Amino acid sequence: MQFKTAFAILASMAASVIAQTNTNTSTIIDLLRTQTGQTDQFATLLSGSPQYQNLITKLSGNGSDANYTVFVPNNAAITKLGAVGQNVDLTNIILYHILNGSHPASSFSSGINIVSTLLNNGSYDFYSNNIALPLVVSKNDTGLQIPYSTNETANVTQADLKAMNGIVHIIDSVLSYPISPSNTIKNLGLNQLYMALNSTNSTGNIDTKKGVTIFAPNDKAFGQFSLANLNASQIQNVIGYHVVDGVYFSPNLTAFTSPMNLTTQQGKNITVKNLNGGIEITDVSGNETAKIVRSDILTNNGVIHIIDVVLIPSENSTIPNNTSTNFTNTNGKGSAANSLHGAEFSFAAFLITVAAAVITIAF
What we know:
One of its GO terms (cellular component) is extracellular space. By secondary structure, the chain is α+β, with helices and mostly antiparallel strands. The chain has 2 domains: 28-171, FAS1 domain (Roll); 181-355, FAS1 domain. It has helices at residues 28-34, 40-47, 53-59, 75-81, 90-95, 181-187, 191-199, 203-207, 219-223, 232-240, 250-254, 335-355, and strands spanning 68-73, 98-100, 111-116, 134-140, 143-148, 152-163, 166-171, 212-217, 243-245, 260-263, 269-275, 278-282, 289-299, 302-307. The strands form 2 sheets. The protein has a 7-stranded mixed beta sheet.
């Protein structure tokens, strides 16, 4: 199942969302200009340079050609931008805040929603089939949130301002569009995986793929294995075994009604199971089962899900666990922390050896 833009499923609107009684006679751009103290700085920003004229025209339509939903940063967020308003790239940042069609708060289902933005510039968007960059919208009892970058979240502070050509949701941050998988992995602090990618000259392979899902083991997962025992061929297999062609967001994975086999770029299958809304991934040998501990981190060519176990392809199934690592210590002290430090040291020594031979891999 390849990525398909997941637009909204109707659900009940959260009671805390502020209802608007706009008469729908204003366009989006006119509405922004009248929201003094809220969104007028965003409107002023657009009006301040000829490079945004196409955007102004788009948001000034009467709705007969197209409707849009705009997540508009409030004045405080715009103020934080400082001099970035002169940045030519700001056009693409703004496009990442705009969705085709009208999406009121009630149209988003509880949990994770994936929606398509207007940003499909080939310099930033490496999804397959000319699919525009997506946006994650999360809905819970407190309202709507938009996770972005690696550890940032924008909150919808006011929803459903209605215009004749669409809807405005006011947010408290300026969103940034997704970046390459390798830089995302680095920014997430997945240090062991990032070192493994660099040591095998693999970053270019995952960064240039069109539409991929990466199940990325966290550092604790790598600490459970004596990676110094891996040879070059094995580390290539292990990395490729965590990359799947096609984009599978968590709503796609939880939609599986029975265990589903996905073929990795290493060539072997992994099995994905939906267990009461939680997602488990089992390797081909059945020896290792990983849980997704953080889902739906967007990249410019797909998505990353962080998992808690390193999956091992069948030919590597005899790789021993790092028995010196004790993760049963729940107080965060003593042997668990010390063993992790030792595992990182041994892995670093291995990477120095591998890096000397600059290995190019093909998933």
